[in-house]
Design a protein that fits this description.
The structure is a single chain. The chain is an alpha+beta fold and about 300 residues long. About 30% of the residues lie in helices and about 25% in strands. The strands form 6 sheets. It has a 5-stranded antiparallel β-sheet with strand order 6-7-13-11-12. Strands 1-2-5-3 form a 4-stranded mixed β-sheet, with helices on one face. Strands 15-18-17-16 form a 4-stranded antiparallel β-sheet. β16 and β17 form a beta hairpin. α1 runs antiparallel to α2.
Length: about 300
């Protein structure tokens, strides 16, 4: 009954809603079963409307972005999966501040900023995620991170919509208040950038892109770095030193190019990937006494 009510509600609001949508098509790992219902809201208003409906009808739900840090179980998700809306970036009058919907990709935002001669997001150009996920995880690379440029975010909670200041996010390495508060969703975020030389910004972005191509297995489906960086060392180095480069479970493999990446060599299942991650974590712990913590999120 709830599913039919949601279908009727989505139709009345003009929201695209699909049944039994294969989630492997919406993650960079290219694994996972179907979502019972899959929504594509056009804007933040429709995103809020869907969440209000789901909360009011006790419907299981999840919001995803580009699926670049997400692992979906083989049985899929028995509820509503909402793809965060992309929408256009809204540049403020000062020319340096921009508000962006959660579903906007970091590549798109950083490219647009560079075109305007604004520095601060070059590090994000090669991160395959979206703004929402980047805020939730305080995404970073090459010495830059979201915390350096974030001004605020619009947050949807079970109690209503509120604005969080940068300080209220409690940003740290791959963590934020969004990771701590159940049911909080980042709908959009505002960033402040600094004027810079466009040629220099583009050159910096090109250098980061080259370094990624040289060091990372971008030719294979993956979710990027599989494990968080342990204090005082690097996950990839520990995995390589444990002799696990190329280690395989089913269609999942520890990349031979970069041991910090688990890749889908073809036909991998979620179960393969989880089994490989557990085996890697156990081996590293046995040899070095360090327990690796997954960076990739599992859709529950």
């Amino acid at each position: 009954m709830t599913c039919q009510k949601l279908l009727d509600f989505a139709k009345s609001e003009g929201i695209v809603l699909r049944e039994n949508e294969p989630l492997r098509d919406h993650t960079t790992f290219r694994v996972g079963g179907p979502a019972r219902l899959f929504a594509l809201p056009r804007d933040t208003y429709q995103l809020i409307a869907l969440l209000v409906f789901a909360l009011g009808h006790d419907l299981k739900w999840a919001v995803i972005g580009n699926g670049s840090n997400l692992l979906v179980p083989d049985e899929g998700y028995d509820g509503l999966v909402i793809r965060a809306p992309e929408g256009p970036a809204r540049w403020h009058q000062d020319g340096r501040t921009v508000t962006v919907p959660a579903g906007c990709t970091l590549a798109r935002l950083s490219t647009e900023a560079a075109g305007r001669g604004l520095a601060g997001l070059a590090f994000a150009q090669g991160i395959p995620g979206t703004v929402g996920g980047a805020v939730v995880m305080n995404a970073g690379a090459y010495g830059g991170q979201i915390a350096d440029v974030l001004v605020s975010s619009r947050c949807i909670t079970p109690e209503g919509v509120r604005t969080l200041t940068a300080e209220e996010h409690r940003l740290s390495y791959r963590r934020s208040i969004y990771a701590e508060e159940h049911g909080w969703v980042c709908a959009e975020a505002t960033f402040c950038l600094q004027p810079g030389d466009p040629d220099q910004i583009h050159a910096e972005m090109a250098d980061y892109a080259r370094r990624r191509r040289d060091k990372q297995p971008l030719e294979w489906p993956s979710a990027g770095s599989t494990f968080k960086r342990p204090e005082g060392c690097f996950a990839g180095k520990l995995i390589e030193d444990a002799g696990l480069k190329g280690f395989t479970v089913g269609g999942a493999q520890v990349s031979e190019k970069h041991a910090g990446f688990v890749i889908n060599r073809g036909g991998a299942t979620c179960a393969d990937i989880l089994a490989l991650m557990q085996a890697v974590s156990d081996r590293v712990y046995e040899q070095f006494g360090v327990r690796l913590e997954p960076e990739v999120k599992i859709l529950r």
